Amino acid sequence: MASAVVSFHGQHLSGLLGSRDRAMESLKSEASTWAGAAPFGWHSLRSSGGLRMEWINCQASRGAALRMNTERSGSGSLLGVRCSASGSSTARPASQPRFIQHKQEAFWFYRFLSVVYDHIINPGHWTEDMREDALEPADLNDPNLTVVDVGGGTGFTTLGIVKTVDAKNVTILDQSPHQLAKAKEKEPLKECKIIEGDAEDLPFPTDYADRYVSAGSIEYWPDPQRGIKEAYRVIKPGGKACLIGPVHPTHWLSRFFADVWMLFPTEEEYIEWFTKAGFSDVKIKRIGPSWYRGVRRHGLIMGCSVTGVKTQAGDSPLEMGPKAEDTKAPSNPLVFAYRFLIGTIASMYYVLVPVYMWLKDLVTPKGQPI
């Protein structure tokens, strides 16, 4: 086989000579080492020649058989599911604390964070370029589309939506009145409907919207599967859901702080949640700040854009039990204070990570892995 130069999320594997089998084994070994705990084994492999690669990975322990197809799509990388996952849940152990992955803690977390969210959090984790890249698979290409932005917060993602969709057709929903107050101040969003609500119990009728968008919200849902089931319910047949969220770290220190703070799903979990809810044509597009150079081992608060299409009218075929969390139930104030304090301290680590990666990008020569 001729010498090849293949880029694996900013890391280059060069000079692969010999038989195709040996080259592919080298790629698989490097991908497995670099991706760490990523459950698919191989992840997206890019080449300067626009290489398309397809593989099948069956893991008996997961009960999953997933046929994936990778495509280059802009600066991101797209993973398409060819058949659905089945079998046991891939959720990580419940013993992992995730102190802010509860609605009450998240409410107060954003009570304070909303003051600086657009100025401190977005520049390091959710830039305008990332937003445009992440929304591209949602096909927001018609001004007359009815769109719900669930967990819309300060409206940063909504600003990307109303570039192509009439604001009067867009509804922003969030449980935080403090975040929504920031959205109401933005001139391009003046015609949007802005309401308080729960992502796991949406106040919209079945088959209501053409598009469902949720960015930076799933990490606070006590039951992500329920929220994605709701996304399926409210979309019209033929409509599309686009969920943008974190990815789980593989670096041990980043993984520790991520799991203390909130939910960082694996890519496999996103695929399983969408598939079980009833979505077809489920795809993942990887996103990230340019100065990360594709590095994902520290996790990303905005790391992927997941899309799926609703093919049948009505509710999701998935049956679910009662809600995981009752926000109206009384809580112990000391337990709440402990959870909130520890979770907030853990979140500070993810203020430092993008600064570290930005500095590392400045001092590391271009073309070298960081």
Task: Put the structure in a nutshell.
Helices cover 32% and strands 22% of the residues.
Characterization of the model:
- Keywords: Membrane, Transmembrane, Transmembrane helix.
- This is MPBQ/MBSQ family SAM-binding methyltransferase profile domain-containing protein.
- It comes from Riccia fluitans.
- InterPro entries: Methyltransf_11, MPBQ/MSBQ_MT, SAM-dependent_MTases_sf, SAM_MPBQ_MSBQ_MT.
- By secondary structure, the protein is an alpha/beta fold.
- It has one domain: 3-Layer(aba) Sandwich (Rossmann fold), CATH 3.40.50.150.
- 32% of the residues lie in helices and 22% in strands.
- It has 11 helices and 13 strands.
- It has a 10-stranded mixed β-sheet, sandwiched between helices. It has a 3-stranded antiparallel β-sheet with strand order 2-1-3, with helices on one face.
- Helix 2 packs across helix 10, helix 7 packs across helix 9 and helix 8 runs antiparallel to helix 10.
- The longest helix has 16 residues.
- The N terminus is likely disordered.
List keywords for this structure.
22% strand; alpha/beta; 11 helices; ten-stranded mixed sheet; SAM-dependent_MTases_sf; MPBQ/MBSQ family SAM-binding methyltransferase profile domain-containing protein; membrane; 370 residues; Rossmann fold
